[in-house]
């Protein structure tokens, strides 16, 4: 069982949303210190102030995870100013727009892949070697239900999250094979009520999840070395339903009748 107590935790995108909640919960579990990486300066300052008021040891870093130079430089700073990271939660992510793929711009494709996919690999590359050397550590990669399910008007986001799923599971297999002691958890939640997917059309199969509930499930997964967090139940059943249903039936039953493919119809997202 991975202990959180006395560990150093790094959460990317930890200034708001489920990132902030997961950081808070780790500190409540007795973590030694929390490193927060975020691009939103105001939220970073606010969260740091509020956490310090709770007597947490916080190390905030203003960083754009899609900028490789900043990632490498900030990781070096963390190693010298804070020390080794025991638990890395790769959480920062974005969704750009609500359009079909032919309406996308090259810039939006690059940005989404850089933040949602490439950043996780680059950041992990910075901290994993030390975890392997120490014979312990835990990497949490926040993918999405969209990393297991294709969805119209969400193609680039889906691409970025499917990639995370494949990479995350591959490194888990490598780290297990080499008996490194480093654990990997891949997280695939459907819509969470943080504002990121504001306006999205939910349905009984994929209801809007409470952020606190999702964050708590991730923390439990770290403690009990779970390979996956898939929530709600429908996400857990995806490999099975996709495996047994012919694709046109899946499109018709899950996509059309149950409304899963219409989710982006009302999406507005965050205004800023
Ligand atoms: N909200 C959902 O419905 C939902 C569902 C499934 C998966 N997820 C995933 O969960 C993760 C967290 O989502 P959330 O709902 O808490 O989002 P959020 O928007 O509330 O928080 C994301 C945080 O990441 C930060 N961030 C964004 N781009 C960054 C960058 N380039 N560099 C550094 N920090 C950056 C933001 O400033 C913000 O603090 C994301 O990876 C998201 O894709 C969210």
Task: Name some characteristics of this structure.
alpha/beta, 272 residues, Rossmann fold, binds nicotinamide-adenine-dinucleotide, seven-stranded parallel beta sheet
Helix content: 40-55%
Mean pLDDT: 96
Shape: globular
Widest sheet, order of strands: 3-2-1-4-5-6-7
CATH architecture: 3-Layer(aba) Sandwich
CATH superfamily: NAD(P)-binding Rossmann-like Domain
Give a quick account of the main beta sheet: strands, pairing sense, barrel closure. Answer: 7 strands, parallel
State the CATH topology. Rossmann fold
Quote the beta fraction: 5-15%
Question: Order of SSEs, N→C?
Answer: EHEHEHEHEHEHEHH
Q: Helix count?
A: 8
Radius of gyration: 18 Å
Written overview of the protein:
The protein is built from 8 helices and 7 strands, in the order βαβαβαβαβαβαβαα. It has 272 residues and is of the alpha/beta class. The chain has one domain: NAD(P)-binding Rossmann-like Domain (Rossmann fold, 3-Layer(aba) Sandwich). Helix 4 runs parallel beside helix 5. The model has no long low-confidence stretch (mean pLDDT 96). The structure holds nicotinamide-adenine-dinucleotide. The site of nicotinamide-adenine-dinucleotide has 30 residues, from helix 1 and strand 2.
């Amino acid at each position: 069982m991975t202990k959180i107590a006395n560990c150093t935790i790094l959460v990317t995108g930890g200034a708001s949303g489920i990132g902030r909640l997961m950081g808070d919960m780790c500190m409540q579990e007795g973590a030694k210190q929390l490193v927060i990486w975020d691009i939103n300066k105001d939220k970073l300052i606010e969260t740091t102030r509020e956490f310090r008021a709770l007597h947490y040891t916080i190390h905030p870093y203003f960083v754009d995870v899609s900028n490789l130079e900043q990632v490498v430089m900030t990781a070096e700073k963390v190693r010298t100013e804070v020390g080794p990271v025991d638990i890395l939660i790769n959480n920062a992510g974005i969704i750009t727009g609500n359009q079909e793929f032919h309406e996308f711009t090259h810039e939006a494709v690059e940005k989404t892949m850089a933040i949602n996919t490439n950043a996780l690999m680059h950041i992990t590359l910075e901290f994993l070697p030390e975890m392997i050397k120490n014979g312990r550590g835990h990497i949490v990669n926040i993918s999405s239900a969209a990393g297991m399910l294709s969805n119209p008007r969400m193609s680039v986001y889906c691409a970025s999250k499917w990639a995370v799923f494949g990479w995350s599971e591959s490194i888990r297999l490598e780290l297990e094979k080499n008996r490194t002691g480093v654990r990997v958890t891949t997280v695939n939640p459907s819509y969470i009520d943080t504002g990121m997917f504001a306006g999205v059309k939910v349905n009984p199969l994929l209801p809007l999840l409470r952020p606190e509930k999702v964050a708590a499930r991730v923390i439990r997964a770290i403690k009990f070395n779970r390979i996956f967090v898939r929530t709600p139940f429908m996400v857990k059943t995806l490999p099975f339903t996709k495996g047994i249903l012919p694709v046109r039936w899946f499109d018709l039953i899950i996509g059309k009748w149950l409304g899963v493919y219409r989710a982006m119809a009302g999406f507005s997202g965050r205004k800023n």
